[in-house]
């Protein structure tokens, strides 16, 4: 029986990895042998505040289980900080094999009561965040002729959902972004 794990020797960035689905993805990637950049600025569900504890706790859990990980607290919602996430992976581990764009926030409100800020902030984290981190990794992936992007959508994006025009627009935008990246890369 082989003891090789599916991600042995791989370096994976997971955004929004301090809690929820992102946390579980980071833990699984590490359990499968990946070196993981656990990205999470530790914001609340609505994107407010910051807290290093969620990312730090995931890194400690990975290390406790015998894995390798580092914490990163940059936001995906702006181009320069998002590019620093990718740079940290390469600077720390010498390469990058995958980017899991999981980061997200919610600012639910029915459309006629939704603020412009609530719409823009959700788009910035989900859609622009997926773009910024992917764009930062794309040239590297082309140069090394390998690399994987994993993007998250939702039924809210695919069919709509009450009180989530911002989230639905971002998630359907990610579908288009993903399809176009696949063709371009």
Primary descriptors:
6 helices; Rossmann fold; globular; alpha/beta; 5 strands; five-stranded parallel sheet; 185 residues
Task: State the gist of this model.
The protein has helices spanning 20-31, 53-64, 79-93, 116-144, 155-159, 165-184, and strands at residues 11-15, 35-39, 68-72, 98-101, 148-151.
Report on this model:
The protein is α/β, with parallel strands linked by helices. The chain has six helices and five strands. It has helices at residues 20-31, 53-64, 79-93, 116-144, 155-159, 165-184; strands at residues 11-15, 35-39, 68-72, 98-101, 148-151. It has a five-stranded parallel sheet, with helices on both faces. The longest helix has 29 residues, at 116-144. The relative contact order is 0.14. The mean pLDDT is 97.
What structural class do the secondary elements suggest? Answer: alpha/beta
Strand order in space, largest sheet: 3-2-1-4-5
Q: Judging from the principal axes of the Cα atoms, what is the shape?
A: globular
The total strand number stands at 5
Which residues sit in consecutive blocks of at least 5 with pLDDT less than 50?
A: none
Supply the CATH class.
Alpha Beta
Q: Give the CATH superfamily.
A: NAD(P)-binding Rossmann-like Domain
State the major sheet.
5 strands, parallel
- Element order, helices and strands? EHEHEHEHEHH
Give the count of structural domains: 1
Strand portion, in percent? 5-15%
Helical proportion? Answer: 40-55%
Overall pLDDT score: 97
Instruction: Report the end-to-end length measured between terminal Cα atoms.
Output: 36 Å
């Amino acid at each position: 029986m082989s003891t090789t794990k599916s991600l042995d020797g791989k370096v994976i960035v997971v955004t929004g990895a301090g809690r929820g689905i992102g946390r579980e993805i980071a833990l699984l990637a590490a359990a499968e042998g990946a070196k993981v950049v656990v990205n999470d600025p530790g914001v609340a569900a609505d994107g407010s505040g910051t807290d290093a504890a969620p990312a730090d706790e995931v890194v400690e859990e990975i290390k406790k289980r015998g894995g390798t990980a580092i914490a990163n607290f940059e936001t995906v919602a702006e181009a320069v900080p998002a590019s620093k996430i990718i740079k940290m992976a390469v600077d720390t581990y010498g390469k990058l094999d995958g980017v899991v764009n999981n980061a997200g926030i919610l600012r639910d409100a029915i459309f006629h009561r939704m603020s412009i800020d609530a719409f823009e902030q959700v788009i910035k984290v989900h859609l622009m965040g997926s773009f910024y981190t992917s764009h930062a990794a794309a040239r590297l992936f082309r140069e090394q002729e390998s690399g994987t992007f994993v993007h998250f959508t939702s039924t809210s994006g695919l069919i709509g959902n009450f009180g989530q025009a911002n989230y639905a627009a971002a998630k359907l935008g990610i579908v288009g972004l993903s399809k176009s990246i696949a063709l371009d890369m």
